[in-house]
């Protein structure tokens, strides 16, 4: 099963390599934008956008409201499983 985790793009790390910094569950990670951006695109316009990230790649853009609903559901599942904190570790590994 694949799980895309909502993340917000907060900075561009390397435009030439199409790499950005995204905030995922309070952690900042480098992600690759090549699946959602065109070569030569001005990536700075992507800052602030929400994306679904899987294995370090942004796979699609999502609306902030949908991202927040998904994050809330993930937190609820984590709490119901009494694994507080384990969810973040497993999603960011």
UniProtKB/TrEMBL annotation:
Output the InterPro entries linked to this UniProt entry. Hydgase_assmbl_chp_CS, Hydrogenase_HupF/HypC
Output one GO BP term: protein maturation
Q: Which GO terms describe its molecular function?
A: carbon dioxide binding; iron ion binding
What Pfam families does the record point to?
Answer: HupF_HypC
Q: Which family does it belong to?
A: Belongs to the HupF/HypC family.
Matching NCBIfam families, A to Z? Answer: hypC_hupF
- The protein's name is Hydrogenase formation protein HypC
């Amino acid at each position: 099963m694949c799980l895309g985790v909502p993340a917000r793009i907060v900075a561009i790390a390397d435009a030439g390599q199409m790499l950005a910094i995204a905030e995922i569950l309070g952690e900042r990670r480098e992600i690759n934008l090549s699946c959602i951006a065109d070569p030569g695109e001005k990536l700075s316009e992507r800052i602030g956008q929400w994306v679904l990230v899987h294995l370090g790649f942004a796979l699609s853009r999502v609306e902030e409201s949908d991202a927040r609903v998904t994050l809330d559901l993930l937190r609820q599942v984590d709490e119901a499983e009494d694994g507080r904190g384990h969810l973040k570790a497993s999603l960011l590994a």
